[in-house]
Amino acid sequence: MEEINLRNYAYLGDALWELFIREKTILQTNNAKKLHQITTANVKTEFQCELLHFLEDYLTDEEKEITRRARNLPIPIARRNIQTQYRQATAFETIIGWWYLHNKNRYNEILKLTETKLQF
User: Fold this and answer.
1) One of 14, 25, 43, 96 is an active-site residue; which one?
2) How many Cα atoms sit within 13 Å of 18 on the Cβ side?
3) How far is CA 108 from CA 44, 51, 71, 79, in A?
């Protein structure tokens, strides 16, 4: 597989994470407002930071290197006020996208692991 830019992994990881959360959320309520609140709580920057911190002990050296590189990507000006959190969330989304394309078993394993941390 050809090498993909880290930002593209993050772009994919963002979509995959939101889809995963939405699949879980629809089992929680039929109320549209609550669906939005639950989804937002689980996809926001702060929560993705927490998840990356939670997953650190489970990451291989290669995965740690990918997240380190993703944390060092340039930050859009609009996000500079929450720079540290934004970098962590980008690293989380990057590794989600990377797992999805390179190791579906690991991707599924990690999603299962994160279920214990979801905020419902």
Assistant:
1) 14
2) 12
3) 21, 15, 23, 30
